[in-house]
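Working notes for the structural subgroup meeting. M.R. asked for a predicted model of this chain before we commit to crystallization trials. I am recording the input and output together here so anyone reviewing the notebook later can reproduce the run.

Input as submitted:
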Amino acid sequence: MDKLDYSIINLLNENARKSYRQMAKELDVSMSTISNRIRKMEEEEIIKGYIPLIDPQKVGYDLLAVIGMRISHGKMIKVQDKISKTPEVISVYDITGEWDSIIVVRFRNRRELNKFIKWITSMEFVERTYTQIVLNVVKEEVKVPVPG
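Returned structure, recorded in token form:
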């Protein structure tokens, strides 16, 4: 991948419905270059698909939380796999430091969050959790930094 590929990805992240003509004009390259680059990135699964960017609050999901989990040694993948299958879970991460895994979840209200936390704390191999509620999202981007 070169700078042009990263620039194309960022334009698609801003608006996946942007035309090849518009992208070519913005990046000062031909439409066939844009088309060929996108097709190649799709074939290599760098671009895995195109999805609408939904405003979670407008569809009733006002509560965003980050939950740290301490998981019994050797059981992280089993626990993460089970948790990742729930629809409220946005992200699941392996991390370094005090916690073994971090999950990011969205709910309509505190009652749903409370039920979810009780569910994960009752799971076998989950030793401890730490929950933080996000008060305000200052920045949330999907851009890929263009290399120097």
